[in-house]
Amino acid sequence: MPEPVYQADVVIVGAGVAGLAAAHRLTSAGVSTAVLEAAHCVGGRMSTEKVDGFRLDRIGQLLSTSYPELGLTPGLDTLVLRPFAPGVLVHSEGRHHRASPPPAGGGAGGARGALNAVRALASAPLTSSTPRAGLGAAGARAALSRATGSRTAVSRPAAPLGSAVDQARLAAALARIAATPVERLLARPESPARHALTDRGLPARTVDGFLRPLLAALLCDPELTTSSRCADLALHAFARGRLCLPEGGAEVLPELLARALPPDTVHTGVRVTSVSTTSVTTADHGELRCRSVLLATDAHAAAELLPGLRVPGFHPVTVVHHTTDEPPSTGASLLLDADRDGPVSHTAVVSLVDPSRAPAGRALISSTVLGTPPDDVDGAVRAHLARLHGTSTTRWETLAVHHTARAVPAMRPPHDLRRTVRLLAGLYVCGDHRDTSTVQGALHSGTRAAKAVLADLGAGPLHAAEPLPRAA
Fold first, then answer.
1. Any idea where the Amine oxidase domain is (predicted)?
2. pLDDT value at position 179?
3. CB 436 within 8 A of CB 230
């Protein structure tokens, strides 16, 4: 009996970054691959709207220069990352406070330096007319400044980071988490992040004034219901790298991946209605035969094609974009709200981070609201931004308000950060809902799925592929 001729060895449903990353791994291994996307462009939730020369991200998840998959995924070698100013700027009680991670790479040296500062500050008098051996108070303050990157004076309690000793303890904790291997972080006991922060003995002022707003921004989770393991991974990335944005907008990352694939690999405007281990049925382009199917859609779309597939909860995100002639004085920093007295979680003058996102002479301010937005979201956001940036916002022009109800999959405990991507031989699933709800997690999930497909296909000769039906 003659063997069937397949139109592709593998059909990937969904052209988000997870599916595109998997396609790169498969095509690099010589596996003929077709990526089918229902929308008329690639990227999924990583999309960017163009308005009068501005590039406005719909969700705008933060990236880190320390994400391993950004350097490992084929097709991203030309990706340009635009970093924020080092650390973050925290707004508390009407003032701005700079908070930075340990020196690049963290490590035991950073932790030792911060711990030495703790011991010296604990033993040194606040004022002394007689020089002391060792660090002394002045030396301890200098060591603290190097360890934390803080520009706040340490001779008095510094809201929102706490006292000098509190800041040194925070720096030591960040240095330790930067130096801890990922597998050890994943083996830690698991609880909601808000409980874990309290249980680890850090002062409440440090938790509420810095770690809570930072993690809320990184995880898109204002109540910190996320698994403590996922929170540790977020802090690990923060402590080892720089927060950043892709130059040109979020859509650039999936577009780079799609362009770097072999011609005619990606087919947009093709809606899949059913799947099996050996075929995919589409609404308008018939049936495509294959040897394996990889679902790389969001969790809801995947569950529609495979009833019974786990669907997590989601965090809603609203991004409000404003423009003005004169940028606020907060510069290229990510500005966090520690007071929780308004709807904005974090905000930034993104045109100072990535000038390609705004026309010359215009400032683009992008602000993120987590959870359910208020009824008059623009008015409430404007009032809050006036306090956060310390400037009038009455003349700011609103460019867009993007609300995404299912923006980021929730990672509540117990959360399996390596949820299986192989459902059975010939049927696989990937996406940030199978890993961590980050770009790193989506890319890594795609890589894991491609490896599982290749393992099942084996090293034998692959079937020749027929031309696919024409698609938009």
1. 17-454
2. 96
3. yes
3-class SS of residue 49: strand
- In terms of Cβ atoms closer than 10 Å to its own Cβ (0-12, 13-18, 19+), residue 200 is exposed
Residue 100 confidence class, pLDDT cut points 50, 70, 90 = confident
Q: Which residue type is seen at 181? A: P
Number of neighbours of residue 29 by Cβ within 10 angstroms: 16
Spatial distance between the Cα atoms of 15 and 37, rounded to a whole number of angstroms: 5
Phi and psi, residue 471, nearest 5°: -135, 160
For the cut 90, the answer to whether the pLDDT of residue 413 exceeds it is yes
Do 47 and 255 contact (CB within 8 A), yes or no? no
Give the residue from 404, 17, 15, 451 showing the smallest Cα distance to 220.
404
List, in sequence order, every residue forming a beta bridge with 329; answer none if it has no partner: none
Q: What sign results for the dihedral spanned by CA atoms 111, 113, 114, 116? A: positive
Claim: this prediction has a pTM higher than 0.90: no
Amino acid occupying residue 141: R
Structure tokens at 24: 């790169």
Matching residue, tokens 């097709």: 75
Structure tokens at 211: 């770690």
Strand residues in 161-297 grouped as ranges (E)? 243-246, 266-268, 272-275, 279-282, 287-295
The strand order across the sheet containing 314-324 reads 95-99, 88-92, 335-337, 344-349, 363-370, 314-324, 397-409
Residue 144 has, within 13 A of its CA and on its CB side, a CA count of 31
Write the burial class of residue 74 (CB in 10 Å: 0-12 exposed, 13-18 middle, 19+ buried). middle
Q: How far from 396 is each of 52, 326, 364, CA to CA, in Å?
A: 15, 10, 10
